[in-house]
Amino acid sequence: MVAAARRLSGLQKDVLHLYRDCLRAIKSKPKEAQPRFRAFARKEFDRNIGTLKRTDVKAIEYLLRIGRRRMEQYMAPTVQDISHQ
């Protein structure tokens, strides 16, 4: 018996959409820098997974806005590499 798939909220869909957009945008970076960009994106998303509650809508919306802005900045053609620590 297969469990029914749980429906995602609009915010959850927005977060997944931003993550997928980040992964797609990383493909435009130089091959040797792509793993560092992926690791940076994963680290940024992981940082907030354990600290936020699903019901903290204002914080999630704020982080989505910040994430979109950062993605636009980092995906500029002049940014060729990234360092994550």
Automatic annotation (TrEMBL):
Complex 1 LYR protein domain ranges (all copies): 14-72
Keyword Amino-acid biosynthesis: no
Localization (cell): Mitochondrion matrix
Keyword annotations from UniProtKB, A to Z: Chaperone, Mitochondrion
Entries under InterPro entries matching the protein: Complex1_LYR_dom, Complex1_LYR_SDHAF1_LYRM8
Listed GO biological process terms: mitochondrial respiratory chain complex II assembly
Domain of life from the UniProt record: Eukaryota
Ranges that cross the membrane: none
Primary subcellular site in the record, as a coarse category: mitochondrion
Pfam families listed in its UniProt record: Complex1_LYR
Cellular component terms (Gene Ontology): mitochondrial matrix
Keyword presence, Cytoplasm: no
Family classification: Belongs to the complex I LYR family. SDHAF1 subfamily.
Identification of the protein by name: Complex 1 LYR protein domain-containing protein
Organism: Coemansia asiatica
